[in-house]
Structures are given as structure tokens and as C-alpha cells.
Amino acid sequence: MKNDYKYQFGNNGSSAEHNYAAYGRRGGWFYNQAINQKLLNPLGYSLFAFIAIVLSVLASFAGLAGVTLTALFIVGVPIIAGCIFNQKFGLIFLLTLQFTLLSLSKVLTTVPLGISFDIVTVALLAGLTLKLLFSKNTDWSYFKSPLGIAIIVWVSFAIAQLFNPAAESQLAWLYTIRAYALIILLYFVFVYTVDSVRFVWILIGLWMSIAFLGALYGLFQDYVGLRQFEWAWLAEDLTRYFRYRQWGSIRKWSFFSGPMVFGLLMGISSSVAIILSTIVKTPWLKAAYIIGGIIMFWAMFTTATRAAYVIPLIVVLTYFVLNFKGKSLFYTIIVIGIGAFFVYMPTDNQRLAAFQSAFKYTADASYDVRVKNWQDMQPFIQSNPVGGGLGSTGRWGQRFSPHTDLAQFPPDSGLVRVAVEMGWLGLFLFLILYYLALRQSIYNHFYIKDPTGRGLSLVFIAVLVSLLVTNLPQESTFSPPLVYLFIFSLAMGVKLKEFYPNENINNNFGKNRLKQ
User: Fold this and answer.
1) Among 2, 137, 158, 288, which residue carries the largest CB count within 10 Å?
2) Do 471 and 261 form a contact (C-beta atoms < 8 A)?
3) Rounded to whole angstroms, how far apart are CA atoms 296 and 265?
4) Are the CB atoms for 135 and 95 separated by under 8 Å?
5) Model pTM?
């Protein structure tokens, strides 16, 4: 039966060379020169000599800009080629970029670092296109599944927003389409590239490792202090300074783009680490996940991001619902009881007060303003089924259409932003996509009987539920690196079942259901 699954899903267990074998037969001379011989031939020597001459001239006449461009070209071209022809490398590289690169934006303020995400994403999609077109036994079922169709419809609707008659700026669309449409297409890269449980664990391990390092640096900022360049960046903008200074201290952001992203990442990662500690067998790895989870949970409080504080509760409730039995109920009651004690205990500690405010209503001027803004936008949303156009609100609206009323509206919510920019129809499509993802993930969770497989399934369901809930008070789903975890979890909710086939289900039924 294992061979049957491998045949049906043609890409499982295959190497990069195997994936492109058919392309080699059809690609002919160039494939043989470039891939088989690795350019160790006259073609390669001529090509590299030509590149060396061009870059030398460029560096000589263009000064520092030319040298920078030369360095980027020398480093970037092999990486992009690697992303196209070795998509496992590409997914690992993109994860690393998503978790680390934006920290440099506080130093290199004039360099558009975000475009590197787009370049790597396009390279991965180009590699997937080659794989699908030139592989001999391509499986198209992922595109035909309900979730695949929902993703294609969502992307098509986002692209069609270019022609939205209410949009004030097509340039704003160009800057925002990558967040709405380009990145979510990586779902297909994940489902066609992740071919083993081992690679799933590699991606999880990398995620946990970088998140843990982020937690350590966040605690360093909190206990040792901000570095000089961090204070300088914070002091550049008074609005930013007062937004970061809350509850009697500076909200920490580690090496991420801001406290909101750092806080949500710590909330999700700490909860996932505890789940992983219950399914790994190696004692030292179990201890590592427990210690890492505690440290990341601790770091979460340095961000004063109240939306992050509800994530552990969301994960606990998700665990209880998906493992409805006496033991899980016992643990759930204990965790909720401990949480309730900290929520209602008297305190003069500012951070504990911030934690308590996430679970009980207190007079909060910022929250009241946010709710008032949402209420003010309801008539516009109800009367505009396709919204005001991508990039019409927030910072992009202030940059490209500052004269409009929408540009003055700070969405402060991923779901509200979708509703304003893409209308109630766009919000409906997005929620349908989310529903189908959770439906398939939950179905697969109960299909899997292996305890480790079920534990991994629970991890990805918990990430999806956490991002959905926190996408109301914050813009979580499309913020790097949370968007990477979102797409990763979408894909693994579908893919994991292939690695843990249920032997108790009729073979033909199992094979047919695996296509869904």
C-alpha cells in the first residue's frame, strides 16, 4: 500500500534530480549542460567569464551602488537558482528570511528589504510551475480540491481588485497584492514539496530555534536594555515612541518588525513547544521543548500585546475539543483554573495588569477608539461589496491616496482591513477559505490514528485557530513571519494524512479521500 500512495502522489520521497528527470528528457541540450554537467563545460566557463567582465565594469564605473549591486547579484543569483531547482532549500531560506530580515529595516531604512520575500516567492512558484509542467505523473488533485479552488478564487478576486472602480490608486494595488495573493500561492509549493515527516520536523525545528533565539534577545532587551541603534530608531518618531511605551515600560520587539508580531509569535510558539514536548520521545528533546516553551511564554509578556495573551487559552481549548476525554478535560480545567487565578488576583504589577485586561473589560481608551473606528466603517462595508481597493487604508492609503477618507482609517484588524479594502464579498471569500482549511484539517486529525501524527496535526490546527481569532484585534495573518506559519499550517493540515495512512479504512476509500 505504501507504493500505491507513492505512485498516487508522485512527488513523495523524490529528490530534486528525480523531480526534474522528465524535464531533462524534454529539455534536451541545455538541461544536460546546466543540470547534469553543472555548467562544468565550455558553456559554463563562457557564461561565468562574461558575468565577471560585466560585474567588474559595473563596479568600476558605478561606485558604491555598483559594488552593492554586484555583491547582491553574486549572492542572489545562485540563491534564486537554488529556490527554483531545489524547493526544499527555498522553503527553508524563505522561513529564515521571514523570521530575520525585517529586523534590518530599522538600520537600513532606505533599502526595500521586503522585496526579497517577493523574489524568493516568485522563484519558488516558478520552480513549482516547471515541476508541474515537466513531471511525468503530475497530481493535480490539490488544485481541484475545495481548499485549492478556494485559494484560486481568492487570488483571482484579489487580482481583479486592480479594476475596482472605487480604487483611488493602482500603484497601491501593486504594493499590496503580494501580501493578499502572491504569498498564499505558496500553499501549493508546500503540498508539492513537503514529501516526508522528516522534512516537516526540519521546518518545525528551524521555526522553534529562531523563535527561541528571538525570545532570548527580547529578554535581553528587557533586562539589559535596548541597544543604541534601537533607541535611535525608537526616538525617530514620537508617535512610534508613545505607541511602544505602554504599561510603564517599552514594549519589546526582539529582532522582529514590532511588538505585535513578536508577541503573537511568542504566544503561538510557546504553546506549540508544549504540544511538541508531549509527542517527542527523546528525553533531552522533550526537556528542550518544555524549557523553550516557558522562555518564549515569558518573553511574550515583554511585548504587552494583549491579543497574544489569549493564544495559550485558545490552544488549550482546541486541545480539549479535539481530544475530548477525561484526561484532557482534567488538564484543561487545571490550566483554566491557574489562568483564572492570575486574571482575578489583585496586583499593582503593570505587566500582570496588562495580562488581566485581555480577559476582562476595563476602561481602555485605545480599545474604545478602535471599536468606534470599526463601527464608523460598517456603512461603507455594507454598501460596497468589493470594497475601496487594495491599499486604500492604513499606511499605503496615506502614501498613495492621502486625500481620501479611507486613507485616514487605521484598520488595526486583519479582518476589518479585508472588509474595507475588498468589501464584504472579499471577507466572505476569506472566511470560506479559512473554514475549508479548518474543516479539512480537523477531518484529517481524526483520520490519523498515529499519536505522533495526531500531535503534529493538533499543532497546525492550533496555529490556524490562533491566527483566525487574533486576526480580529490585530493584523496577524498577513504579517511576516506569521504569514509563513499560516501557509505552512494550511498545507500541513492537508498533507499530514498522506504520511499517516489509516490502515483500518478501506484502501480505495482512503485513496479517494486523500485527494480531497
Assistant:
1) 158
2) no
3) 9
4) no
5) 0.83
